Amino acid sequence: MTNPFIRDRTHPLATALGEAFPLNDKLAAADAIGFVDWDMKGDRLVWDRGAEERFGAPAGSMATFEGWAAFVDPQDAARIRDDIAEVVKHGRDRMVYRYRFHRPDGEVRLIEGIALCWFDEELVLDRMLGVVLDITRVEAERAALARSEAQLRSVIDTAPDAVLMVDDQGCVRAANGAAEAIFKRSTEDLIDLSVEQLVPMFAAAKGGDPTRPFGGASLECMLGQTLSATGRRADGGAFPVEMTVGHVLCDGETLYTGFVRDISERIEAEQRAEELRAHYLRTARLNAMGAVAAGLAHELNQPLAASANFLAAARLSAASGATRETLDPLLEQAGQQIALAGEIIRRLRGFVSPEAKLAEKLSLSNVIEEARVLTFIGEDRFRVAVQADVEPPAAQISADRVQLLQVFVNVMRNAYEAMGSLARPAIEISARRDGDKVRVQVEDRGPGFDAAILGRADTMFVSTKQGQSMGVGLAICHHIIEQWGGAMCIGNADHGGGQVSFTIPVA
Questions:
Q1: Number of other residues whose CB lies within 10 A of the CB of residue 302
Q2: pLDDT digits (tens, 9 = 90+) for 445-480
Q3: What are the tens digits of pLDDT across the range 139-192?
Q4: DSSP 108-153
Q5: CB 344, CB 364: distance < 8 Å
Q6: The dihedral of CA 370, 372, 375, 376: what is its sign?
């Protein structure tokens, strides 16, 4: 079949169109392609079969230039007229054009085309043979992709974390502004730089072999993980970072995306917070010690006075010629009283010690008894009744002795102060095995906790003493218990008194 539109078969594009003409119908139906032959002297446009209908225009409605221009956006039609004038002026053999086509149903389509131009012997433009393509969908997809890329670029550029795009050779291909700030390098310096110079951990992905391609199994195990690593600035300074690595396959090449966050300030803040917590813990113990300071002199005075009496008796007995059998018991009892005073001082000194705390195997009954002695000094020791019921399976625990003493001293002191008006205050302590924990419960006979603070004992400055304290005691106890993997809560017992329960690990 011969293409009637083409007269000059010496032109390469004309030849190609002629060879493709038998496929015009299939191509046009599949890709909205249309062919048009414009006889400019006779102002006649001939379209291939169905082209006008595919563009949404009635058949025969675009048989002239003005008929075609009636569907084209006026600005685009004017521009195409100007382009034709340029073709004529410069004698060009082709023209590329684009226009907006307004269909009768109101839809606007974007059309792109290329036309071959023929001139007669007098160099007057005689004929244009063109191919047009509906690129509406393609342009919409391209615009959507451009918007998506712009949005992604905006997100990456404004991200507070450094974002590095790394190729499979380990070279940085792209970086955002945060990367410049974190690594103290310009974007120009970062591009093509080995990522190992920024985050040495990536060197592990090569297994120590500098000739080995970047990536592989060593890097794949990092994908999706939040890793702690060390970053390296331009001046060689090291700083702690958190890093997450992802990857994508693009045109057959694997690209890795690293999100790097400088956590220097966070680590410093955590260290300051830990120092502050340690200070609060020691301050709380000092405050607890201050609460019993008034009775400490009396408590020490008893063993020291007794030892002085035993030594005085021994001295008098020696002066009167007493035998060793008489003196030894007196000296032994004096030594026991001095040792008792030393034990009291040792307990108080250990209670306020700022040394690091380590878990150890402890007897819960012994800890409770030691806490009772520290809490109730002088006359208080005889006034309050402390009953401890520790089941054998709960007898051995794992915790720091001094910190656990702090919990018991604080809880028992609070319980005692809550029963200030009772003639015979009593505290009941029970311990039961609960899985891999021991559940300790401390109950008093006081009025119980106010409903407003139930569930808030772990909050700083929430006091159980109605304005008579700063409200840090139970919060610190809560922190200590959680530090050793336990939990703490407060409530009211069935008989109405206050109840504090907490769990600690079994030894």
A1: 14
A2: 888 888 777 765 554 434 444 434 334 467 778 878
A3: 888 889 889 888 878 877 888 899 988 887 888 888 998 999 999 999 889 999
A4: EEEEEEEEEEEE-TT--EEEEEEEEEE-HHHHHHHHHHHHHHHHHH
A5: no
A6: negative
The tokens describing 268, both together, are 């410093």
d(CA 369, CA 363): 10
**Bridge partners of 489?**
501
Do 157 and 132 touch, CB atoms closer than 8 A?
Answer: no
Residue 305 structure tokens: 């006075």
Edge-to-edge strand ranges of the sheet holding 253-262: 172-175, 162-166, 253-262, 238-250, 226-232
β-sheet bridge partners, residue 221 = none
* Chain segment 235-294, per-residue pLDDT in tens: 889 999 998 888 887 777 788 888 899 999 988 888 887 787 777 667 766 665 555 554
Q: Which residue carries 């450094």 as its tokens?
A: 162
Pull the structure tokens for residue 447: 């009025």
Q: What does the DSSP 8-state code read for residue 72? A: B
Distance, in Å, from the CA atom of 301 to the CA atom of 323, rounded to the nearest integer, reads 29
* Strands annotated E in 169-268: 172-175, 226-232, 238-250, 253-262
In contact, 253 and 173? CB cutoff 8 Å: no
Spatial CA neighbour of 79 closest among 55, 102, 97: 97
Please state, in angstroms and as integers, the Cα–Cα distance from residue 82 to each residue in 23, 85, 174, 198, 439, following that order: 33, 5, 43, 56, 91
27 CB contacts (<8 Å, ≥6 apart)? 20, 33
Residues 445 and 218: their CA atoms lie apart, in Å, by: 63
CA–CA separation, 201 vs 144, rounded Å? 38
Instruction: Report, in this order, helix, strand and coil percent for the chain, each rounded to 5.
Output: 45, 25, 30
Distance CA(184)–CA(264), nearest Å, equals 15
pLDDT, tens digit, 9 for 90 and up, residues 66-96: 999 999 999 999 999 999 999 999 989 899 9
